[in-house]
Amino acid sequence: MANSNEMTINLVVLGRTQTGKSAAGNSLLGSSDFESHCSPSSVTTCCSLGRSCRILGIIRRNGCELALRVQVLDTPSYPHSGLSKEQVRDTVRSALAHHFREEGLHLALLVLRADLPLCPDESDHAIQFIQELLGPTWKDFTAVLLTHADKAEEAGFSEEAYLHSASSTLLSLLTSVQNKYIFLDNQKSIIKEERDIVLRKLLNFIRQNNYQALPLLKHSKE
């Protein structure tokens, strides 16, 4: 995962069409590697890996500062307007194995919109999809990324008020992943200070796993 002065974290973004997966990936990388725009159909049709430059001032270990590199795998949405569930699953599984097989996956980020309610069916489908990809320990290696948090804030919801008013479906999902969640302000996400805050939270989640990565072995297609 790291040499003597550098650490790399491997992330994958998963979610429905128009939740902001690709935009979130760009925010984490501090770049515009992934195509992201409003569209009446699913924009992303294949997986794409983005790599950040060396990021300083984020993490220290054993009293020494480490340079951080972030690798993000952008994926087709599920459900997808042009691909079946099996096509999306097999595409993502193959890309995970290709890009992260040696080091493993540190976190899967399930991207949801903070300004839209999470329905039970949507949650169930997302959980099943992630389970098929990551296997039985998926909860330890999954966090929820709530995009468009700026719209929720404009509606008068602080983070605390939002969670107090959230549906039982969303709260149950957050509980299942040990409350690993991050609110992403789409207006501020390109600002370095905001990006650094998000990266520190992600590193804290990874630290909870003792910096372990999920081995990417072949999982059953059941």
Structure annotation, total helices:
7
Beta-strand percentage?
15-25%
CATH uppermost class:
Alpha Beta
Give the overall shape, derived from the CA principal axes: globular
Roughly what percent helix? 25-40%
The first-to-last residue Cα distance is 31 Å
Question: In total, how many beta strands?
Answer: 8
Task: Please give the CATH architecture.
Answer: 3-Layer(aba) Sandwich
- Taking all Cα atoms into account, the compactness measure Rg is 17 Å
Family: Belongs to the TRAFAC class TrmE-Era-EngA-EngB-Septin-like GTPase superfamily. AIG1/Toc34/Toc159-like paraseptin GTPase family. IAN subfamily.
Protein name: GTPase IMAP family member GIMD1
Pfam family, one: AIG1
InterPro entries: G_AIG1, GIMA/IAN/Toc, P-loop_NTPase
Layout of helices and strands:
Layout: E1 2-3, E2 6-15, H1 21-29, E3 48-51, E4 55-61, E5 64-74, H2 85-100, E6 107-113, H3 120-134, E7 142-147, H4 149-154, H5 159-165, H6 168-176, E8 181-183, H7 192-208
Parallel strand pairs: 2-5, 2-6, 6-7, 7-8
Antiparallel strand pairs: 1-2, 3-5, 4-5
